[in-house]
Design a protein that fits this description.
Largest sheet: 7 strands, mixed
Radius of gyration: 19 Å
Strand content: 25-35%
Helix content: 10-25%
Distance between the termini: 24 Å
Structural class: alpha+beta
Number of strands: 14
Length: 290
Amino acid sequence: MKLSGLIPKFFLILVIFICSGSNLLFAKDIHFFDVQEKLLNRINELRAHPRLTAQQLGLNPLIINQTWQGMDFRVPFYQVELNENLTNMAKAHIIEMIEKEYIGHQSDVGNTLEQRARYFGYNGIFNGESIAVFCFENFVSVDNAINILWTDMVKDAFYRISAESAPLLFPLYKDLGVALAGTQITLNGNTYNAYILCIEFGIPQFSGYFVGRIYHNKPLPEYGIYNLEIKSFQENNPTSIYSIKNLFLDGSFFVPWDGISDLWIEINDKTGLYPPETIIVYTPTVYIEL
């Protein structure tokens, strides 16, 4: 992403489209702010009252309802709890991104979210991550930065602008890690003050739902070009089929487990340009490369 023309007093960049083709440099001075409880409370309020929270932030009610009706939430949202290991993971990831001068969800050596989580002692079954970078001139307080970041992330989650805020509306997460750091960013020759927010999500143990993520070489289309179905063998129901409506833009999805043993995930392209693809998996958490 290249910035040209007039530069506003502040702007927010979600990692999904940050710095493509840009010359990105970070200052090495980093200062972390204690915002864990503030973000925890906001996230749990959102998960307790998703549509009401979105409306209070000024989001379009029609789009809110469209997003909600497009999903198939069959479980209530779990409230999340702060997890020290995930918070350490978030801080370490910010430090690495600044030192290595990149923004992304994999580590500098290519480790996935789950690999990074295990390194920091979090041995859950599934992880999610949101990253946002807020750049500005002059001065913006931490509280104002949080307000701007939070409003934009909730908007991103409901308007499905990018994959970055998808974990906010993924109902099965139970653990949370939060880190907010202040630094400076030089982007295409212009230097800005910046806040970098990294939020880690985790599912600590199996909770009755098959959870997976599709890794795609480009962002998943709106509500997925792909029509996913899970086919399973069960002792009394060998042809059980679940249609996946819960496909989030970061590729994550879930369906009820119900004693599934062997699983087939069939991926059908609604455009009809590609043949159906069937993948066999045997574990409650699956990563599919498309």
